[in-house]
Structure formats: structure tokens, C-alpha cells
């Protein structure tokens, strides 16, 4: 222990005596460890500890997958919930329904996201309430009206009641009905992202359908659950066909986090790989700096060796210095990570990770940082320690030579710098590919004009406007009131057609042709003003008028892709198509008479984006919104001013039609609607983070190259003096300095190019051309070459201006 303390004290003195070396080494490690810790914080929270629920590994969602591998919608009745609970593979089950609620008390009703849960749900999920209690079985007995009680979501409680615990026991009014607040959900209880949880009434009525969550019994695999539950689900589909897909499907259960893993897992793996590369580059810098610093300490080690110090003793001393550097770098890196995590979380796509996850630098992350620090200190300090602990005693003692380790030292430096160059080029190529892909997606032709347009969601309360005529008149009145707001240029109903991802994928038939189960189109329910508001081009025919819209005329407008794919002769106009899935499910879905009958094609519009920004345009059909009406709609508004500035006026107009009616709490203009799409946010995140990591890697590689060249110049100062004393020009010395690194840099660039091409499959997800694009590779190579040249230029210039007499006395 005493000798260890001596090593630590001596190491600290040595590091303090060389502040430039120490600061450079610590910062190199801090950047690498800080970035690695920040990304690992995200990985840990999302992939390893996302949920606070009881036995989350056995909780599953039920997915119905069609033959094309796509997830199809479904719902389960109260009787089916009971049947699922009795399955031999199921431990327990709960049901959920989502609906927008209204909180009154302001000049306009406030929208609140309500989640209706069966009364066993809080016990099922197993998260204690922050205040009061959750829902309990007595709050809702099957077949009976539930108690008027509510549990507030934690964030809603903070936002709406300023975290006042006295709200428990008080009454709040939701859609003109009084509820008693019995509790506040825990901070990590975010099921359904609800503002308010209320009991769900479950009956034997076969019309209402709910989401059902399951917990499997211990030891039951997902494959076993699929096999056991699939016959039951198929029977449910026969009993209540309107709640299940009208095509062949199979049941597949998925874990709570499986969807998020598909959405974000690859991205996190890519970013974590990037920061590990950054850490490797930073650690390489430390190795280079340790070797370079040994130039000034060669005599010290020779003297210690001559006095009897063992090689292990010197290795331990050098490793102690390396570990101190790495631990200090880790401490600074953790501080950087604390600041960086918030920024990374802000860049994550909003719905790509579970909102129950707490992304922070916590104990497991700190332990990871400590482990990384010890590993980097020992692993990357070991090679320099072994080199420096074997001095050439006779040469050093006789000539006071500043040489560090002869050929071995130069070879190691060359290998380290080549490795740094190669890894940096991979990161630059990856960042350039990500940027290329993101810019291509961000500037893809949309086929519509999103500027100065907002989409106002309007949820309709249960039990209101129960007939087709009432609901159609109500939606039209809302549109007319919104259109009358000063500053609004145009307004139109768009029930499910807000691009760039819109429409309900339904099967259709073409009159005169045999039915085909593979014919799918995105069916949109809109008013006639939809097309001029978005400035969508008309190629052939016409749009239906207001009278046809009110009467739910059996007409349809299709897009260019659908016309080209299904009417290749260019004769789409006048043909008729039928969409059998346009069926009523009162009181939730109301249809006009004959909605599923034949509709005449009266127009063809130019293609616009309807399946995201990066996927091809899909066949698309538009019918009057009165053909089928949900218990919600949207109003598109084009304005002469920034549209969100008119939102409050729009809310007032909506509530003037129905004083209990609110607008959605998530109103956005269409430009932000695009930027909040997951593919856009994910591309933006990868571009910014990968770009930042690549720039840091470039900086670290430049520092490493500068250190190696400076070390080489210091070694050969005497040689340069002799050459210049014998008449060698400055250009000759400059050439020697640059050529000494030319081979290492060239090998590094070649290796980096090979790695970039080899990793094309990984990088290709961010760009169609990816890292194989010659322009990407050429640009990355040029940037790295220029930075490398600049890093060599300063010590080369210093070598070429050395005074020959001073150089001859250098030893």
C-alpha cells in the first residue's frame, strides 16, 4: 500500500509538472468517455430499464399480422376479455380505452387525454401512486356504472395543479360531470401518456371494443403464447368480425419494448458504435502522448534502471499515471455527459421510446464510466509503459539521448496514428452519408404546400351527435365557423388525410374486374376544399362540390399512382371502385347509406406524399368526408398570418358551436407536422450527433498527429541542425517532416476507405448511396487530408526554422 501511495504522489507531481500534456490527455479522454457515457445513459434507460411495471418482461401486446407482414387493427369486447383471462398461458389481463376529456373553467374548454382502465389495471401494472391511490376493483364492477373517480397523471398534476397534494379528495369537472380525485399516478407511470385515468365500464355489449394487455404466466414463451391464443383470437374474429381485419391474419404477441427496439434500436447501436470509435481515438491520443512524453523522461528511467528498479516497478509507475489520467478524464466526462444527456433526449423522436424511461446519468451508468476509465487507463497505457520501461541504458547514459524506444517507438506511433486516421475516416464517411440521406429526405418534393397551414384536431365526446345527419351537420358547422375567423383564407374538413402520412389502408374492387385481395389504397375522408388548401395539382376530371359533399355522393378522386397502377390505359375517369370496408360501427363510426357501394372515379390528382418522406407514394383515394365519420375530425386551415397565432380564435369559434367542445392539445402547423415525424426526427438526430462525434474525432486525430510530428521533430532536432549546417534548404527539412507521416496517414486513409465500404450495410440505412458514394468518400478523405496536413504544418515549420548552432547543442 505504501508503494502504491508513493506511485500516486509521484504521478501527480509529474502530471502537474507537465500541464500541457496533462490537459491534452485528460480532455481527449473526457470527450470520449463523456460521449460514451451520455449515449450509454440513453441505451440503459431505453433498452435495459424502460418500465417501472411489475414483471414487465412478461407483459405483452397482441398484434394481428396479415400475409404482407403488416400490423392490422383489432379490438376486444368485455366477454372476450374474460375469455382471455381464462387462457392457460395468461396470468392476468386488463382493458383500456382512450378518449379525449374536457376540463372546464377557462374561456375555452381544455383538452385532456383520458385513458379508461379496468379497475384491476393499477394493481396489474403495480406502480404505487405518488399521492392518494390508484384505481381499485370497487371503482368499477363489470356490468355496472363505474364510480365517478379519477387519478391524475403526474405531469398533468404538475402542470395543471402545480403539484398541490391537496387536490386528492377534491372534485374536478370533466365533460360537465363531477369526478373525485382519488390519487396522482407515480412519476414513471405513463401508461397511454394520459392526463387523467378513469374507470372503464365493461359490459357484455358486443359493440364496444378495447385494447387488452396481457401478462403471461412465468415460463411461457411468446411462441407458446402465439400457439395457445391464436385459435381463440380466430374465434373472436368470427364472433365480432367488425373488430378484426377482413383478411387473413395471425396472432403474434410482442414484448412492451419490442416496437421501440425496431424503431430506435438500430439508431442507438449506430450511435453507441460511433462513440466507442471516438473513445478509441481519444485513448489512442493518450498512448501517443505517453510515448511522446517519454522523450523527456528517458534519462529518468535509465537512471532508475541503473539503480536497480525493476521493469515491473516502472511499468506500475507508468500505469498509475495512465489510470490517474483516465479517472480524471472520466470524472470530467461524466460532467460532460450530465450536460449532454438532456440534449440527446431532446433530439430523440417523441414517440420512439417509452415515456416511462428515465434517461439520466444514474448509478449503473456511473459504474459503467468507472469501468471504462479503468479499462482505458490500463489497456491503452500498457503498451507505452512496456516501451518506456525498457530503456537502452548504455546509449542513454553515455549520450544523454532523448530517443524514446528506437524503431519500436516509431513503429508504435505510426500504427497508432494510422489507426486514428482510419477510424476518423469511417466516422466522417458515416456522418456525411447520414447528412446526405437527411438532406435528401428534408428536400424531397412533397406534392403539396404545407406553408401557412395548420391541422386542428377536434375530438367528439361520447354520446353526442349519434346520427349521421347530426354529425355531418356538426362537422360542417365547425368548418364554417373556423372559416369565418379573420385571417383565415380557407378551411376544410380532413378527417384522416393530413400528409405526409395519411389515409386508412383499405382493400378495394374495380367494377368489371375480378376481386383481388392484394388491391390496397389509402382512403381519405375530406371536404372539397382540401385540395385547394394544400395546392394539390389536378391532372384530370374534377373535385366534387359542396352539395355532393353534403349528400355523400358516391364519387371518388384518385391519385396519379393509383391511376397508373390500376388503369394503365389512362381511362380511370368513369370507372367505378368499391371499398367494402367502409362500414358503420355505431355510435363510434357512422356511414352514409351505400357507403360500401360503387363510387365513380371523377378525377385524378397529382401525387403527393402519403406514406412518409422516404417511402414511395402509395395508391390513394379520396371520398367526401360524409361518407364515413368517426367521433373526431380535423380541420385544415390556411391563413394569411402564421396559423398558430389564430389558434385561440379558432378555439373560441369551435366552442361557440358547442360550449363543451375542445380542440386537440397537439395542434401544429403542417411544417412542424413534417418535422415531428419519426423518420425526420431520427434522421436529424443521427445527422447532428454523428456529425458532432465525427468533428470531435477529427479534432482528436489532429491532436494525435500533431503530437507524433512534434515528438519526431524533437527526436531529430540535432539531425536537422546538421543538415541545415551542411546547406540543406528549408524545403528539404519540411519534406522530411511531412514524408515521415505520409506513409502512416496514407495507410490510415486506405484502411479507412476499406472499412467505410465494408460497413456500407450499416451506414446505408441513412442514405441510399451511403458510404460507397464516391463523393462522400472523396469529401471525407479530403477533409481528413487537409486537417492532417495542417496538424503537421506547425511542427514542420518549427523544424525548418531551427538555428543550426542551437540544434547542434540540443543534446
Percent in strands: 15-25%
The first-to-last residue Cα distance is 39 Å
Question: What shape does the CA trace take?
Answer: elongated
Number of strands: 25
Determine Rg (CA atoms, Å): 34 Å
Structural class: alpha+beta
Poorly predicted regions: 396-406
Give the overall pLDDT as a whole number.
86
So how many helices?
Answer: 24
The helix content is 40-55%
Main β-sheet description? 11 strands, mixed
How would you explain this protein's 3D organization?
This protein is an alpha+beta fold and 811 residues long. 49% of the residues lie in helices and 16% in strands. Strands 1, 2, 3, 4, 5, 6, 7, 8, 9, 10 and 11 form an eleven-stranded mixed sheet that branches. The chain is elongated, with a radius of gyration of 34 Å. The model is unreliable at 396-406 (pLDDT under 50).
Features:
single chain; 811 residues; alpha+beta; 11-stranded mixed beta sheet; 49% helix; 24 helices
Quick overview:
The protein has 24 helices and 25 strands. It has 811 residues and is α+β, with helices and mostly antiparallel strands.
Amino acid at each position: 500500500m505504501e508503494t502504491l501511495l508513493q506511485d500516486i504522489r509521484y504521478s501527480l507531481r509529474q502530471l502537474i509538472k507537465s500541464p500541457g500534456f496533462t490537459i491534452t490527455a485528460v480532455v481527449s479522454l473526457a470527450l470520449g468517455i463523456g460521449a460514451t457515457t451520455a449515449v450509454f445513459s440513453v441505451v440503459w434507460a431505453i433498452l435495459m430499464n424502460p418500465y417501472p411495471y411489475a414483471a414487465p418482461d412478461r407483459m405483452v401486446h397482441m398484434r394481428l399480422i396479415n400475409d404482407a407482414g403488416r400490423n392490422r387493427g383489432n379490438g376486444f369486447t368485455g366477454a372476450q376479455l374474460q375469455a382471455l383471462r381464462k387462457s392457460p398461458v395468461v396470468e392476468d389481463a386488463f382493458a383500456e380505452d382512450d378518449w379525449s376529456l374536457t376540463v372546464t373553467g377557462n374561456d375555452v374548454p381544455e383538452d385532456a387525454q383520458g385513458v379508461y382502465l379496468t379497475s384491476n389495471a393499477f394493481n396489474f401494472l403495480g406502480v404505487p401512486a405518488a399521492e392518494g391511490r390508484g384505481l381499485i376493483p370497487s371503482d368499477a364492477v363489470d356490468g355496472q356504472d363505474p364510480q365517478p373517480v379519477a387519478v391524475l397523471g403526474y405531469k398533468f398534476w404538475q402542470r395543471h395543479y402545480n403539484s398541490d397534494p391537496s387536490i386528492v379528495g377534491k372534485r374536478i369537472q370533466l365533460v360537465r360531470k363531477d369526478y373525485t380525485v382519488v390519487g396522482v399516478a407515480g412519476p414513471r407511470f405513463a401508461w397511454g401518456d394520459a392526463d387523467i385515468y378513469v374507470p372503464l365500464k365493461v359490459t357484455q355489449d358486443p359493440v364496444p371494443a378495447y385494447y387488452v394487455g396481457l401478462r403471461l404466466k412465468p415460463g411461457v414463451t411468446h411462441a407458446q403464447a402465439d400457439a395457445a391464443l391464436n385459435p381463440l383470437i380466430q374465434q373472436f374474429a368470427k364472433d365480432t368480425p367488425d373488430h378484426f381485419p377482413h383478411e387473413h391474419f395471425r396472432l403474434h404477441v410482442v414484448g412492451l419494448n419490442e416496437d421501440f427496439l425496431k424503431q430506435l434500436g438500430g439508431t442507438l447501436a449506430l450511435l453507441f458504435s460511433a462513440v466507442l470509435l471516438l473513445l478509441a481515438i481519444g485513448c489512442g491520443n493518450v498512448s501517443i502522448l505517453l510515448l511522446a512524453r517519454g522523450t523527456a523522461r528517458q534519462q529518468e528511467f535509465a537512471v532508475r534502471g541503473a539503480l536497480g528498479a525493476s521493469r515491473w516497478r516502472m511499468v506500475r509507475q507508468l500505469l498509475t499515471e495512465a489510470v490517474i489520467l483516465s479517472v480524471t478524464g472520466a470524472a470530467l466526462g461524466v460532467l460532460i455527459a450530465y450536460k449532454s444527456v438532456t440534449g440527446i433526449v431532446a433530439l430523440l423522436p417523441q414517440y420512439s421510446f417509452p415515456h416511462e424511461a428515465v434517461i439520466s446519468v444514474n448509478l449503473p451508468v456511473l459504474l459503467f464510466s468507472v469501468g471504462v476509465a479503468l479499462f482505458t487507463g490500463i489497456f491503452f497505457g500498457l503498451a507505452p509503459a512496456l516501451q518506456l520501461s525498457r530503456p537502452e541504458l548504455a546509449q542513454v547514459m553515455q549520450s544523454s539521448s532523448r530517443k524514446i524506444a528506437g524503431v519500436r517507438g516509431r513503429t508504435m506511433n505510426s500504427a497508432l496514428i494510422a489507426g486514428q486516421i482510419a477510424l476518423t475516416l469511417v466516422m466522417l464517411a458515416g456522418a456525411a452519408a447520414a447528412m446526405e440521406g437527411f438532406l435528401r429526405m428534408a428536400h424531397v418534393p412533397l406534392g403539396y404546400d404545407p406553408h401557412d397551414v395548420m391541422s386542428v384536431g377536434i375530438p367528439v365526446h361520447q354520446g353526442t351527435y349519434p346520427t349521421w345527419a347530426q354529425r355531418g351537420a356538426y362537422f360542417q358547422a365547425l368548418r364554417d365557423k373556423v372559416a369565418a375567423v379573420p385571417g383565415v383564407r380557407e378551411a376544410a374538413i380532413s378527417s384522416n388525410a393530413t400528409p405526409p402520412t395519411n389515409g386508412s389502408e383499405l382493400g378495394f374492387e374495380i367494377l368489371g374486374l375480378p376481386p383481388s385481395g392484394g388491391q390496397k389504397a389509402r382512403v381519405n375522408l375530406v371536404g372539397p376544399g382540401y385540395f385547394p388548401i394544400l395546392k394539390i395539382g389536378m391532372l384530370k376530371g374534377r373535385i366534387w362540390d359542396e352539395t355532393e359533399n353534403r349528400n355523400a355522393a358516391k364519387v371518388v378522386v384518385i391519385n396519379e399512382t393509383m391511376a397508373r397502377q390500376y388503369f394503365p390505359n389512362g381511362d380511370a375517369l368513369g370507372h367505378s371502385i368499391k371499398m367494402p370496408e367502409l362500414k358503420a360501427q355505431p355510435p363510434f363510426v357512422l356511414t352514409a347509406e351505400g357507403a360500401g357501394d360503387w363510387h365513380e372515379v371523377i378525377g385524378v390528382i397529382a401525387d403527393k406524399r402519403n406514406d412518409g418522406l422516404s417511402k414511395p407514394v402509395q395508391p390513394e383515394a379520396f371520398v367526401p368526408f360524409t361518407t364515413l365519420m368517426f367521433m373526431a375530425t380535423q380541420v385544415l386551415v390556411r391563413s394569411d398570418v402564421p396559423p398558430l397565432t389564430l389558434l385561440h380564435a379558432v378555439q373560441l369559434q369551435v366552442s361557440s358551436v358547442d360550449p363543451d367542445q375542445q380542440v386537440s392539445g397537439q395542434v401544429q402547423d403542417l411544417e412542424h407536422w413534417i418535422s415531428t415525424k419519426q423518420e425526420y426526427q431520427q434522421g436529424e438526430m443521427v445527422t447532428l450527433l454523428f456529425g458532432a462525434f465525427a468533428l470531435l474525432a477529427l479534432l482528436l486525430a489532429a491532436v494525435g498527429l500533431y503530437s507524433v510530428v512534434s515528438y519526431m521533430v524533437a527526436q531529430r532536432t540535432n539531425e536537422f541542425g546538421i543538415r541545415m549546417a551542411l546547406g540543406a534548404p528549408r524545403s528539404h527539412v519540411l519534406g522530411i517532416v511531412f514524408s515521415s507521416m505520409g506513409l502512416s496517414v496514407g495507410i490510415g486513409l486506405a484502411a479507412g476507405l476499406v472499412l467505410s465500404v465494408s460497413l456500407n450495410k450499416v451506414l446505408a440505412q441513412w442514405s441510399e448511396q451511403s458510404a460507397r458514394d464516391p463523393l462522400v468518400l472523396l469529401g471525407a478523405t479530403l477533409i481528413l487530408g487537409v486537417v492532417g496536413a495542417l496538424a503537421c504544418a506547425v511542427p514542420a515549420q518549427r523544424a525548418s526554422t531551427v538555428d543550426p548552432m542551437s540544434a547542434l547543442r540540443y543534446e
